[in-house]
Design a protein that fits this description.
This protein is α+β, with helices and mostly antiparallel strands and 386 residues long. The protein has helices at 7-23, 36-52, 71-83, 92-104, 107-118, 232-240, 247-266, 276-304, 311-335, 353-361, 370-381, and strands spanning 124-127, 143-147, 150-160, 168-174, 185-191, 197-203, 209-221, 225-226. A 4-stranded mixed sheet has the order 1-4-5-8. It has a 4-stranded antiparallel sheet with strand order 2-3-7-6, with no helix packed on it. The structure holds flavin-adenine dinucleotide.
Length: 386
């Protein structure tokens, strides 16, 4: 593995950094989770500015509105966005729908769906999990039945992040209930304004608002099917592996850690002998942060070399989830009860960032639970039996 960036890549990082310093002032940064509609509108405005520069989908080919650069530039951008704590609009359209369409879509679908994503005009959410299908996703029950030139969709999806802001849902549906589980599933893009779609709010611990999304006789044209009917499982799993470096998540946590170190240094007691334990624990977390970063960059590097990382992505994801938890617990213990104060309190350290990361670190389930990532590492990484 080559750890050096080229001079062009370093220049790109500097350009992104200057752009973010100009456009994302400290009061706009996502320090303590989500802050409602105003923050979301700001996030959309940043997406549009990134799009104007060809950076929103910097690694997509130019013909689809991308920047024509590599996965390395994409990863540099992710790292800078995370470190600057730029509020996010989610990455379902850019990270999953786009790559799936490029790999399996028709020419018409590419023309219809890709440029609006690249221009930040539309938002997507992901409809995979269901009330009875999460880790065991292949057990999904939502049905899409072909009737003439349409599919009729019935069922519901669970934990649909960004449902309230999205225009389309990237949906897995069962199209053949008699086929073996993985072979009876298809992938669709569904316009959320279609009659029969409704939502029930699901507020997350970090302030995000997700939804249970219901489909009641929702009719969509067959042109909404992506790839082959009943091959949706394989299409979706292939593209899930594309967007897995996790650098944005790493960099957001790293920024809070760096701020926390500065906060500890500024404390009048930081040099006292009885603070040696704190210094050692900070050192341990620092080691973990370096390991996490390298694991993420390994995934990005594999992607650039044309490989589709799988077990490697799970190694980075699992390590990151647990490292974030370790840091959040360590910081909370170090500052004591002040760490439980949210950003509305003037006495909260780092404007509530300790309390914020503690809530964020409770998210152990999005993008696969820790147990599922352990299963992937054991089976696909180590070749152990199921
Ligand atoms: C913040 C957040 C955002 C999300 N966003 C979306 C989204 O936008 N779209 C979407 O479709 N989904 C989304 N999800 C859902 C997420 O993908 C699921 O929560 C996840 O796949 C786990 O499924 P489940 O909730 O049904 O839990 P379950 O699968 O029921 O798991 C419950 C527990 O059992 C363990 N377990 C299950 N199976 C095994 C096994 N084989 N071996 C060992 N242990 C096992 C799990 O690790 C877990 O601890 C989101 C979830 C969260 C928390």
């Amino acid at each position: 593995m080559d750890f050096d960036f080229t001079s062009d890549q370093e220049r790109f990082r500097q350009d992104v950094r200057s752009f973010l310093e100009r456009e994302v002032p400290p009061e706009r940064q996502a320090v303590f989770g989500v802050e409602g509609e105003d923050q979301y509108r700001f996030a959309r405005s940043i997406d549009r500015k990134l799009a104007e520069r060809g950076w929103l989908v910097v690694s997509w080919p130019r013909e689809y509105g991308g920047g024509g650069l590599s996965q390395i530039e994409h990863s540099i951008l992710s790292e800078e966005l995370g470190y600057r704590r730029v509020p996010s609009t989610g990455n379902v359209g850019r990270g999953y729908v786009g790559p799936a369409l490029m790999a399996f879509g028709t020419a018409e679908q590419k023309e219809q769906y890709l440029p609006p994503i690249a221009r930040a005009e539309v938002q997507y959410c992901q409809g995979f999990s269901e009330p009875n299908a999460g880790s065991d996703l292949a057990g999904l029950e939502l049905r899409a039945v072909r009737q003439g030139d349409e599919y009729v969709i019935n069922g519901s999806k669970m934990f649909t992040s960004f449902a309230y802001h999205a225009d389309y849902i990237y949906l897995l549906a069962r199209t053949d209930p008699d086929a073996p589980r993985h072979r009876g599933i298809s992938l669709f893009i569904v316009d959320l304004n279609t009659p029969g779609v409704s939502f029930r709010p699901l507020p997350y611990i970090n302030g995000d608002m997700a939804a249970q999304t219901f489909f009641d006789d929702v009719c969509v044209p067959v042109s909404c099917l992506i790839g082959e009917e009943n091959q949706g499982w394989y299409h979706a799993m292939t593209t899930l592996d594309y967007e897995r470096s996790g650098l944005e998540r790493y960099a957001g946590v790293r920024r809070t850690f760096d701020d926390f170190v500065d906060y500890c240094k500024a404390s009048p007691t930081s040099g006292q002998p009885d603070r040696a334990v704190l210094r050692h624990r900070l050192a341990e977390v620092r080691v973990g942060m370096e390991v996490w970063r390298l694991l993420c960059w390994k995934v990005a590097w594999l992607q650039t070399s044309g490989a589709v990382p799988n077990a490697e992505a799970s190694v980075a994801f699992l390590y990151g989830t647990e490292q974030r938890l370790r840091f959040a617990q360590m910081a909370m213990e170090a500052v004591g009860p002040y760490g439980t104060l949210g950003n509305e309190s003037a006495a909260a350290p780092l404007m509530g960032a300790i309390e914020g990361i503690h809530r964020e670190s409770m998210h152990l389930h999005g993008a696969g639970t820790c147990e599922i990532h352990r299963n992937i590492i054991a089976q696909r990484g180590l070749g152990m039996p199921r």
